[in-house]
């Protein structure tokens, strides 16, 4: 099933499900029990929101060998975790803003895991049950600030630095899905999730040994090689085989 979040005719955010080019309301709680209404809303007439509103976004650094190598960095022995703030999330079609403090903002195409239930101390089997589905993310990064600060909160944390969507796919097999990133139609990144150092379930289990995972929380699983510069006016497309594609324009933010 494909799950969206959208603005309904009363201006309220709702979860919905997608059937081809139509969508239907999901009534009840997506994370407990719900009912699917008939899919009679044209999908292209809906304003889509980010498919979840996470309490936290857990990210994994250097989870693809080829990406670690392009930064002359070692592959970590255990997953290297960091956080992005929920305020960095934007939805499909929303604009990524390049902050005036950075001269080097880069794209990082990533598979995002959506957590379906409150959990702690998961084993690999439990991790499988705790996953609701998968969506597309881009871990946008101010590389110069990440390097200068030594830790990553500022470089990874600006508003609009976590584009997400367009929907959650509950049926994806994350073992071998192709991830691509194009800028203005030019292919910048292409890799497969099979090249992850730590696979999805292991990452979820590991994160849950540190902090309680809440319904709707996200785990971004790292980026393949080929990260590169974003500039004012660019059109970023992040895609994952079996999910779809996420489009976001890029604009310079004026200083306030
Ligand atoms: Zn990343």
Describe this structure in words.
The longest helix has 9 residues. By secondary structure, the chain is mainly β. The chain has two domains: 48 residues, SH3 type barrels, CATH 2.30.30; 196 residues, Fumarylacetoacetase-like, C-terminal domain (Fumarylacetoacetate hydrolase, domain 2), CATH 3.90.850. It is globular, with a radius of gyration of 17 Å. It starts with a strand and ends with a strand. Strands 1, 2, 3, 4, 5, 6, 7, 8, 9, 12, 13, 15 and 18 form a 13-stranded mixed β-sheet that branches. Strands 10-21-20-16-17 form a five-stranded mixed β-sheet, with no helix packed on it. It has five helices and 21 strands. Zinc ion binds next to loops.
List the topology elements.
Layout: E1 2-7, E2 13-19, E3 22-28, E4 34-36, E5 41-42, E6 48-49, E7 57-61, H1 65-70, E8 80-84, E9 89-90, E10 96-98, E11 105-107, E12 109-115, H2 124-130, E13 131-138, E14 141-142, H3 143-149, H4 153-157, E15 162-169, E16 178-183, E17 186-192, H5 200-208, E18 218-220, E19 228-229, E20 235-240, E21 244-252
Parallel strand pairs: 7-18, 9-15, 10-21
Antiparallel strand pairs: 1-2, 1-6, 1-15, 2-3, 3-4, 3-5, 7-8, 11-14, 11-19, 12-13, 12-18, 13-15, 16-17, 16-20, 20-21
Helix pairs in contact: 2-5
The site of zinc ion has 7 residues, from loops.
């Amino acid at each position: 099933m494909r799950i969206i979040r959208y603005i309904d005719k009363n201006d309220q955010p709702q979860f919905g499900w997608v059937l081809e080019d139509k969508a239907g309301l999901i009534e009840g709680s997506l994370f407990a029990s719900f009912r699917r209404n008939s899919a009679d809303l044209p999908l292209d007439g809906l304003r889509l929101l980010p498919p979840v509103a996470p309490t936290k976004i857990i990210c994994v650094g250097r989870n693809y060998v080829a990406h670690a190598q392009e930064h002359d960095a070692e592959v970590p022995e255990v997953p290297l975790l960091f956080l992005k703030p929920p305020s960095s999330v934007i939805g499909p079609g929303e604009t990524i803003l390049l902050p005036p403090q950075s001269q080097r903002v880069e794209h990082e195409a990533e598979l995002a895991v959506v957590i379906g239930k409150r959990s702690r101390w998961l084993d690999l089997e439990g991790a499988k049950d705790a996953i609701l589905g998968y969506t597309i993310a881009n871990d946008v990064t101010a590389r110069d600030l990440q390097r200068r600060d030594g830790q990553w909160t500022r470089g990874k944390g600006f508003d609009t630095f976590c584009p997400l969507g367009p929907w959650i796919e509950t049926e994806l097999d994350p073992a071998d899905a192709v991830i691509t990133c194009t800028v203005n139609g030019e292919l910048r990144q292409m890799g497969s999730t099979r090249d992850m150092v730590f696979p999805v379930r292991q990452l979820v289990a590991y994160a849950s040994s540190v902090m309680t995972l809440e319904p709707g929380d996200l785990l971004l699983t790292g980026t393949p090689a080929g990260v590169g510069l974003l500039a004012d006016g660019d059109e970023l497309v992040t895609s994952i085989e079996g999910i779809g594609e996420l489009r976001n324009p890029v604009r310079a933010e004026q200083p306030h």
